[in-house]
Amino acid sequence: MGFDFWLGSLEDPGTLFQRKARLEVSGIRKGSDSIIQARVNIKLEQIRPSDDVAPGYVSVVEFGTPKARIVKKCRP
C-alpha cells in the first residue's frame, strides 16, 4: 500500500484498520531544508494510494545536523 508501518493501540488489537494510522519513514545523510521538504513531498505522494484507508504520517530525518520533519496527512 505504499507505507512502512501501521500505528495503533496494543489495547485494541482486534480492529485491524480502525483507529490506526499509516507511517512512512525516510532518512537522508545530509541535506538542506529544501531537500528535506522535497523528500517529504515524495513520501506524501507515495502514500497517496492508501489515503482512503487511514490517516498517514511521513517522517524524514536528516542525520547530518540532525533534524526531522514529520507531517500528518488526514484522509480526504
Description:
This protein has one helix at residues 33-47, and strands at 5-7, 21-28, 56-62, 67-73. By secondary structure, it is an alpha+beta fold. It is elongated, with a radius of gyration of 13 Å.
For this entry, give a set of tags.
76 residues, alpha+beta, 4-stranded mixed sheet, 4 strands, 33% strand
Number of helices: 1
Helix-and-strand structural type? alpha+beta
Major beta sheet, specifics? 4 strands, mixed
What overall geometry do the principal axes of the alpha carbons give?
elongated
What's the helical proportion of residues? 10-25%
| Assembly state | single chain
Rg computed from alpha carbons, rounded to a whole number of angstroms: 13 Å
Low-confidence stretches: none
User: Which H/E pattern describes the elements?
Assistant: EEHEE
What fraction strand?
25-35%
Distance between the termini: 17 Å
Instruction: Kindly report the spatial arrangement of strands forming the biggest sheet.
Output: 1-2-3-4
Say how many strands there are. Answer: 4
Mean pLDDT: 88
